[in-house]
Design a protein that fits this description.
389 residues; Immunoglobulin-like; six-stranded antiparallel sheet
Amino acid sequence: MRIRNLLSCLFLSILAVSCIKDEALNSEADIETCTLSGDVLNREPIIENDKVTLILKKGTDLTALAPQFTLTPGATIIPASGSTLDFTSPQTYVVTSEDKKWQKSYKVSATTSAFTTTRYNFENVRFFSDNHNKDKYQIFYETDQQGRENMTWASGNPGFAMTGVEGNYSIYPTFQADNGINGSKCLGLTTRLTGTLGNLMNMPLASGNLFIGTFDVMNALTNALTATQFGMQFEYIPTYLKGYYKYKAGDTFYIVDRTSHDKIKPVPGEKDAFDIYAVFYESTEKLPVLDGTNILDENTETILAVARIEKGTESSEWKEFYLPFNFREGKKVDPIKLAAGKYNLTIVFASSVRGNYFEGAPGSTLYIDEVELGYEESETNIINTATNQ
């Protein structure tokens, strides 16, 4: 009996060890949260797929910051979390998964002013690469006079990638196109069908879009409207948005039909249209960032001013647009809040005006080039202008 009990215990021990060995190690290598000690952050760090942006209060010493990271379970990071580094230039961190098979590089930057450029020619792109595709899709960014990257645009491309689409960047909704207004590059946006997985999630269409803000890819398939988070800190008062566009609507306009096998329903006679707009709003503790549910809502109390094209019409030639910022009734800029970096601004381009509701015409294509954001440094001129309109 004693021997039998010993054998039973031995068997159970071996089984337990076997179960532990069979448990798969985590293959994820992500930064999940980031914090800084002391009262130096102006708002929560912006964590994207391959970068982290620390927006700090004015006067913060960038030469000695020690960000601390929470990683996916079992992952490690180099330099170590909590290391003190000089962030006058971006620092690169490498995260290694628990199973040691995957690595991801993050560029971590610190700034006291998130908005550092107001002219956009869409000449600069880099490719997002993962463990399966080197040139999966394109990411647009801006540079300063020294050629250093100082702003990154967001798009819905990361969400489109989750639909399992096969191919390189050219089949994505947001891409760099040739034949810009001066013969150089320009922004290209095309409304696409999302395929089988998109249909299963009742998201059959994806509008091409580009915007200032971030795209929460982890939330994209469960709540696409809140996954699109608009705006970055802006310390001036916007006055106008201007640039050039070309547009061709797709042949057939669709709305979502959950009873159909492909989840779309044609709407005879309906014509697709594009959208261009910019929104200037206050970032509050209760509502720090606006998203797809409230960015154009008349009831969003934190919005101060909006510049928006009335109705985007087709044009095969480059056509100029000029959109003044119209302040909402009773809204004015608080100079103290402005200096403290409490206001955000976003600029948005979309190939289908109803794309955020997965409506539009596949093939609708919008080209954008030579965009300029006008602004004032003092609130006096813009408030007087708004009052006289």
